[in-house]
Amino acid sequence: ESLSFYKSSQFHSSMKLSTASLLVFVALCASSVSASPFTEDIAALEVQNVEKSVNDTPLLVKRTNFCPCKTNDALIHSLMGSIKADLNVRVFSLISSTFSEKAFDSLNIASILLGSYELSDASLKLIESSFAATLKSTFSTTLNAQINAKIFAILESSLRKKCGSKTLTDAQLIAILAEIYAEANILIKTQLPKIGSTLQTKAGGCVSSGITTIKKKISGKGKAKGKSRGKARVKGLKSTKLNAALAANFSAKSTVNASIDKGLKGCNNWNHQALAKKIVLTL
């Protein structure tokens, strides 16, 4: 019996030791896994793979032109079309939007109109939106004429000269376009302030076009206050209240300068090589 009891005790002790060892082993494994840099690396790798797939998405877009490609008018026009569209988004559209917003805010059209007319909210919003749209449209037309002559024409001439009549590989075309973007950045920074001086003389005309839009929109939209009839007030609106607001509140110089400054900010942090690659992928 003593021997049997001894063996039984030894068996239970052995089982306890084995169980304890197993628990320690499992704990060590769990600890090593959680402490392993691979757990974070795997998560990071998954993120990188997702980001890479997103970044590589443009490569899946079907190209209509492939390099090596022969330089011709069609290629130059395609490249310039992409460059213009990109620069308009980055720089020039910011100028037009800023001008129309600042001019609209400074003139305070709502206050002037409500001082002379009984207008519904819907009518007032319609007149205001039409005025803002006219401001932006007329200013954009003036701005585009300037940038086409003083920026885009120069860039196109440089692009034609660099391409010549060569047959270009992707790498060669990307190198040329990177140079064009570098030239564009410098050209915009030097020419925009000069263009701004010209735009200051045109700004008043843009506002006058907006006033004409108001006169057309307000007819039949509201009832004139006071003894004067609505029609008489509309005729007098341009020469009195709106012109007074223009003289008192609207500064062509400060508005245009603020707009140009906004556009110049779009020239910051350009990666010329990356921008060039993007253009080539759109061919």
Describe the structure.
The chain has nine helices and four strands; from the N terminus they run ααβααβαβαβααα. It has about 280 residues and is mainly alpha-helical. It folds into two domains: about 1-55; about 70-280, no CATH class. The strands form two sheets. Strands 1-3 form a two-stranded antiparallel ribbon. It has a two-stranded antiparallel sheet with strand order 2-4. The protein has helices at about 1-35, 35-55, 75-105, 110-115, 120-165, 170-220, 230-250, 250-265, 270-280, and strands at about 70, 115-120, 165-170, 225. The relative contact order is 0.13. Keywords: Signal.
Summarize the structure.
Residues 1-35 form the signal peptide. The protein is mainly alpha-helical.
The number of helical runs is 9
Average pLDDT rating: 75
Helix fraction bin: over 70%
The total beta strand count reads 4
Share of residues in strands = under 5%
Please state the CA-atom Rg, rounded to the nearest Å.
Answer: 35 Å
Distance between the termini: 95 Å
Strand order of the largest sheet: 1-3
- Count of spatially separate domains: 2
Strand-pairing-aware structural class: mainly alpha
The global form is elongated
Secondary-structure element order, N to C: HHEHHEHEHEHHH
Largest sheet at a glance? 2 strands, antiparallel
Low-confidence stretches: 1-7, 32-62, 227-239
Core attributes:
mainly alpha; 2 domains; 9 helices; two-stranded antiparallel ribbon; 283 residues; two-stranded antiparallel sheet; disordered N terminus
Question: What's the arrangement of secondary structure elements?
Answer:
Blueprint lengths: L1 H34 L1 H19 L13 E2 L2 H35 L1 H8 E2 L2 H43 L3 E2 L1 H49 L4 E2 L5 H20 L2 H14 L6 H10 L2
Antiparallel strand pairs: 1-3, 2-4
Helix pairs in contact: 3-5, 3-8, 5-6, 6-7, 6-8, 6-9
